[in-house]
Design goal:
Strand content: 15-25%
Low-confidence stretches: none
CATH topology: Rossmann fold
Number of strands: 9
CATH superfamily: Peptidase S8/S53 domain
Shape: globular
Radius of gyration: 17 Å
Helix content: 25-40%
CATH class: Alpha Beta
Distance between the termini: 22 Å
């Protein structure tokens, strides 16, 4: 995660005092543990799987995603700090202990975020979950409709591109939505890691000929928070576009702290205008990689 911050110039932004403070991000995932890197900024937890009240993460996925988004790195002396280490975190558990989830639970999670967005001052919804069903599947269409409803309510919705790439039309729902911000992994282009298959990130176009994803950031072999921190295992490595999406959500939290009046459409346009073109196909890299100095105009 330290190299992700470097590529996005996040450390420079943090030194300027911009950390995402005051911005609440709703994370739909497998839950979250009370890891010391972000426990004091968890403002809510809702469990659509088992109905439990206290925070937990029995799949480890959600805790890892959260660290990339908003961990402050205190357990690693700052090395494994997230992109928005001051943001507020609200978790909606929609995935079970195997990292799987029904569309109905995801629908309920999205609906809950929409209904409670003003109560918790939610500005961003991060979804590192989706379906591998085809775009023509009824469930996929309903999932896209749900995230677009959230977008139409004013939320900035960020979703992973999925790990079914790199063939064309391999973006998974809800990342194939024309409205939301879809994030892929850039490692498929420049992975120097041995024995790591980084050529997985979903690519466009969608069946509606929409260019996707919008952005890419590193997603392979990312170190972030582990739910086993009480056993001394504070961090773990994971790979996937699930790891890329929260980095972009973190970038958006930094932007909204600085300019809280921006609409979701304006946020999307600012990301487009400030992204660094990596020189690859638009249906593989979208606009390119975020550059926080350019995004925040510093």
């Amino acid at each position: 995660m330290d190299h992700v911050r470097a590529m996005l110039h996040a450390d420079e932004i943090h030194k300027a005092g911009i950390t995402g403070q005051g911005i609440t991000v709703a994370v739909l995932d497998s839950g979250v543990c009370r890891h010391p890197d972000y426990a004091d900024r968890i403002v809510g937890f809702v469990d659509m799987i088992n109905g439990r009240i206290e925070c937990y993460d029995d799949a480890s996925h959600g805790s890892h995603v959260t660290g990339i988004l908003g961990g402050d790195g205190r357990s690693s002396m700052g090395r494994y700090r997230g992109i928005a280490p001051g943001c507020n975190l609200l978790h909606v558990k929609v995935l079970d202990k195997k990292g799987q989830g029904s569309l109905l639970d995801i629908f309920k999670g999205i609906d809950w975020v929409i209904a409670n967005r003003e109560r918790f001052h939610i500005r961003i919804m991060n979804i590192s979950a989706g379906t591998t069903r085809g775009e023509d599947d009824e469930g996929s269409r309903m999932l896209v409709e749900r995230v677009e409803r959230a977008w139409d309510c004013g939320l900035v919705v960020v979703a992973a591109a999925g790990n079914m790439g790199p063939k064309p039309m391999s973006i998974t729902a809800p990342g194939n939505s024309k409205k939301i911000i879809t994030v892929g992994s850039s490692n498929q282009f420049r992975s120097r890691q041995k024995n790591v298959n980084a050529n997985y990130s979903g690519c466009g176009p969608t069946h509606e000929c929409i260019c996707k994803p919008e952005l890419v950031v590193p997603g392979t072999n990312i170190v972030s928070c582990s739910p086993f921190w009480q056993q001394g295992k504070y961090y773990a490595r994971k790979s996937g576009t699930s790891m890329a999406a929260p980095a972009v959500s973190g970038c958006i939290a930094l932007l909204l702290e600085r300019e809280p009046y921006l609409t979701n459409v304006q946020v999307k346009m600012r990301l487009r205008e400030s992204a660094v073109d990596l020189g690859f196909s638009k249906n593989r890299q979208g606009w390119g990689m975020p550059d926080l100095r350019r995004l925040l105009m510093l």
